[in-house]
Amino acid sequence: MKISLNWLKEYIDLNQSPEEISKLLTDTGLEVEGLEAFELVPGGLKGMVIGEVLTCVPHTNADKLRVTTVDIGADEPSQIVCGAPNVAAGQKVIVATVGATLYPKGHEPFTIKKAKIRGEASQGMICAEDEIGVGASHAGIMVLDTDLPNGTPASEYFNLSYDMIIEIGLTPNRADATSHIGVARDLKAALKSEVKWPDVSGFKSESTSSPITVVVENHEACPRYSGVSISNVTVKESPDWLKQKLQALGLEPINNIVDITNFVLHEVGQPLHAFDAKQIKGNKLIVKTLPEGTKFTTLDEKERKLRENDLMICNAYGEGMCIAGVFGGIQSGVKDSTTDIFLESAYFSPDYVRKTAQHHQLKTDASFRYERGTDPNITVYALKRAALLIKELAGGEISSEVTDIYPTPIADFEVPVKYKNVHRLIGKDIAKDRIKEILELLDIKVTKETEESFLAIVPPYRVDVQREADIIEEVLRVYGFNNVELPNYVKADYLAEFPAKDKDKIQKTITEMLVGQGYYEILTNSLTKPEYAVNAAELDESQSVHILNKLSEDLGVLRQSMLHTGLEVAAYNINRRQANLKLFEFGKAYFLIDGDYVEKRKLAIYLTGDIENENWINKTRKVTFHDLYQTVLGITGRLLNKELSTEVIHTSPFDYGLILKFGEKEIAKLGKASKATCKKIGVKQEVFYAEIDWDLVLKKITNTVTFEEVSKYPEVRRDLSLVIDKKVSFDEIKNIALGKKQSLIKAINVFDVYEGENIGEDKKAYAISFTLEDKQKTLTDKVIDKTMTHLISLFENNLNAIIRK
Mean pLDDT for the chain? Predict the structure, then answer.
């Protein structure tokens, strides 16, 4: 919905900037989605001035051109070549100076430049009205009748208004804010200011010569119907001020009568409809429904078949003239020849209008408001406001008394409110006097007040405020969401209960994640060979759980590690020419510790062979430790939301590997399974193995989400190539780079590793990218160079690194 700032200021005093007003509206619940300058003429006639033609002579090299000198208020007159047939000395004209951009109607904009036309210099352009966008004529240049001095901006001559248009993303519940006065009411509450309603005290009936009888047959669909006759009007073009107000909102002016109804609609939010009184047969209006399938032609010249529940405005013979609250008929609308009108201002049921508009796919400004709920108490005020404007702009006389059929007035909403609930839902104790002040500023009366509660009387135009929670929301949006301090920990237990962690669902989530990455789930026997614990240095044979009635020696104990049973699966598959394996298993390990039997849940992951099968488009490669590491980090990152510390190991059952720690506790071990262990089980290729403490993962899993605002400043990447000792890990480089003074470093990544004779036997080269970002301002070359120089110094001093140029 569009609101004109200039128009808004007619109803409430505003000294704030457009940006401040936009923030106020957003804070009170009317979210401003855009703020756009409105210029009646594109470009606002910038660079265009009033000039006076001093001389005008024929061009020596072109019969149809004239060479003129024009006084544009500068030190020297400007020479301009002009092709208009009506240009002559002594004329006051509009001149587009060099650098001005013109927006001719129906053509692409262009900028005036110094030029030579057939050998004569031309420093500007004398303009026709269509060339500057103020009219459609191209018969010749505009000749002005003005005493304004030469050099006066053209915008002053045309009295062009500058406006800011506020685009509000109106939610469906805020039917009260579908007008300028509706928006002013919210600003009244926020600023404690007054809304200035246009005065209609001058309204009076001058005669009763043109009475129109009104009969409402369906009071459910039309609880209130108001109307008045106005005779001897002159339908013509609207004055500039009215046209400009409508154009600022994107509406096309039609004529003074229709424009006034649209003006009042956007002023106070009450739709109006003007009938050509001479087309009302029998001088009678009947508000009723017509039989199913009745044909009716609307203003857009489309014939529509009515439903039995479509409310219609009909004449004395039951012929439809208008779909109530939605769209007028082609026969009864105001035309240029109209002299007498009947002005309608009604309150129609939102349900009826919504269903009709939806069925016929008619979305109009009127239906937009009616289907949300208009103010039933404003119909007569809007009628009088429009009638006075019609008298002012179209002449005529008010030729009937106001008809106002309102048999069952719509009552105010009565809402009981407890102060403790206000404080509980807002999350802050607000003074009772402040609560009452806010509600009264919003036209909500506070009655029957006690120490604990009060009764709120809500006017019917606030269709969205009918419950205690709605009253509290009204208090909060005006008091200000930003004025309610947030605690360190925000709870949502008042909204819903959070059940205990479902271990099966968590396991299913990770299973689906691994399967999606190409892994296969396996299930191995918990019974295994006793010799595995005897021969494995990392296992304690005394902790083995022996089976009393074992079936065989090969199934004599429960496993302490899932490595060996997984390697047996790998060996079985490899021996059958299935060498590329990505496997995982959820299982248990078993221990006898100090006489107690202990079970521990584990997640085991196995990788061996090629990373993928050979295909025609991609060359395959052997799996590496980093492929396994990436998988493990994906699991822990998804469930724990915490960066884990690492420790390098070269102990059994790995030739090399890492321990991942959550605080001080080991949450996972991963690495290259030792060659000796693989050989004993019959696996002749490298296997990478990870064992995750699933019990610890389930204990530490969190729903915590960390986030930060997306920076509006660009990031910058810089690369370094470091030659370092082979024993230096990437973690050491990362920790040095992310020291206390390196707040600009957003990310670090190794994108290439090189080892070879060219750099030494005990050396390796890392190509590292550094992503830099300042969240407060755009990085300059000076700051970037200083940061990279500091990093180079740290690497050289702490790692004895050599920077490759």
Answer: 92
- Cα 84 to Cα 71, 137, 238, 386: the distances in Å are 18, 12, 31, 45
User: Are 103 and 24 found together in one domain?
Assistant: no
Looking at residue 465, its pLDDT comes to 95
Express each pLDDT in 754-775 by its tens digit: 888 888 888 999 999 999 999 8
Q: Which domain holds residue 739?
A: 716-803
Cis amide linkage into residue 653, ω under 30° from 0:
yes
Q: What is the dihedral of CA 496, 500, 501, 505, to 10 degrees?
A: -80
Q: Give residue 108's pLDDT.
A: 86
Beta bridge partners of 650: none
Q: Please check whether residue 490 lies inside any domain of the structure.
A: no
* Residues 378 and 457 reside in one and the same domain: no
User: What does the DSSP assignment read for 346-399?
Assistant: EE--HHHHHHHHHHHT---HHHHHHTT---TTSHHHHHHHHHHHHHHHH--EE-
Q: Is 180 contained in some domain?
A: yes
The answer to whether residue 575 scores a pLDDT higher than 70 is yes
What does the pLDDT read at residue 373?
94
Q: Which residues of 284-313 are buried (b: 16+ CB within 10 A; e: fewer)?
A: ebbbbbbeeebebebeeeeebebbeebbbb
Shared domain for 316 and 389, answered yes or no, is: yes
pLDDT (tens digit, 9 = 90+) per residue, 215-252? Answer: 999 999 999 999 999 999 999 999 989 998 999 999 99
Reported confidence tier of residue 551, pLDDT bands at 50, 70, 90: confident
In the chain the first and final C-alpha atoms are separated, in Å, by 59
Q: CA–CA distance from 674 to each of 115, 602, 610, 681, 766 (Å)?
A: 84, 20, 19, 11, 27
Residue among 430, 411, 412, 343 at smallest CA distance from 381: 343
Domain count, the chain: 6
CATH of the domain at 220: 3.50.40.10
Asked, for residue 548, whether it belongs to a domain, the answer is yes
pLDDT band at residue 137 using 50, 70 and 90 as cut-offs: confident
